[in-house]
Amino acid sequence: MKIQDVKKHIFSILEPFAAANGFKILRGRFVLSRKVGSRTDGIFFTYCSWGVEVNIFPYVSVDYGEITTICNDCGFTLNHSAFINLLLLQRIKLQGFNPDLRWKMQVAKTDRFILSDNEYDDYNRLDMGLSPLLPIALDFLSQYDSIDSIDRLFNTMPIEQYSPYCSGLDTHCMVGLTSAKLSKNADYENIKRMYQRIVKKEDFTIEMKSSFSRIVAYLEQI
Fold first, then answer.
1. Is the pLDDT at 117 greater than 80, yes or no?
2. Contacts with 87 (C-beta within 8 Å, 6 or more apart), sequence order
3. Contact 28/14 with Cβ under 8 angstroms?
4. Cα(39)–Cα(144) distance, integer angstroms
5. Which of 4, 52, 120, 163 is deepest in the core (most CB within 10 A)?
6. 147-200 confidence digits (pLDDT tens)
7. Which 8-state DSSP code applies to residue 51?
8. Spatial contact of 196 and 61, defined as CB atoms under 8 Å apart
9. What single DSSP character describes residue 168?
10. What is the rounded CA–CA span in Å between residue 84 and residue 163?
11. b/e 154-182 (16+ beta carbons within 10 angstroms → b)
12. Cα–Cα dist 173/195, whole Å
């Protein structure tokens, strides 16, 4: 099965949705993208391909240029301020979140659509599965429509150290600290100390810890 054929099929399904909601189809990046001020909204797909089988992972994301630029300039590669696998988000909405849910779905392969040359109904299952995810994606984007909302997502106490809305605790620390500062969170100093304790305690790379220190120093100047 060719990934280009899968992309073509998915974009043909999503084209009316994209046009109705202000998204551009970026075929090379396998994403629906729209720009709103400094924010970029995305519905994107990653994939793995093994000969006759293709695994498609659907995501929704928001990227605030201010947050991303600070992190990247300080040596921490950041692509999204917040994102989540849409099938995981669908499951969370149905049954709530627990820290093991993401890993259980990965093991069971329920966080993806699986397409195979040998299964002719796979495209029908993909079509039926994508449809209910689109309003969930729009709801996510409407909730996280400001840096203040990113601050609330990552810094509402007690914080969820295994948040499903980022790639890991290191990203959580970076985005949480930066969004708190940019949104002028009144509890910023306590939030900063909390993340400093986490970074010191956790087994992060030397490079990540260095980037975090650079971000702290940079934010002190704002």
1. no
2. 58, 105, 110, 111, 112, 129, 133
3. no
4. 10
5. 163
6. 999 999 999 999 888 899 999 999 999 999 999 999 999 999 999 999 999 999
7. T
8. no
9. -
10. 10
11. bbeeebeebbbbbeebbbbbbbbbbbbbb
12. 6
Residue 122 pLDDT: 86
The label of the residue with tokens 């949104």 reads 183
Structure tokens, 53: 């089988």
SS3 193: helix
The tokens for 21 are: 């909601």
DSSP character string of 87-152: HHHHHHHHH---TTHHHHHHHHT-SSEEEETT-TTHHHHHHHHHTTHHHHHHHHHHHS-SHHHHHH
Q: Is the pTM of this model over 0.70?
A: yes
Helix pair 169-182, 65-73: axis angle to 10 deg: 120
| Burial class for 76, CB neighbours closer than 10 Å (0-12, 13-18, 19+) | buried
Q: Around Cβ 20, how many Cβ atoms within 10 Å?
A: 8
Distance CA 166, CA 170 (A): 9
Helix axes 188-201, 206-220, angle to 10 degrees: 160
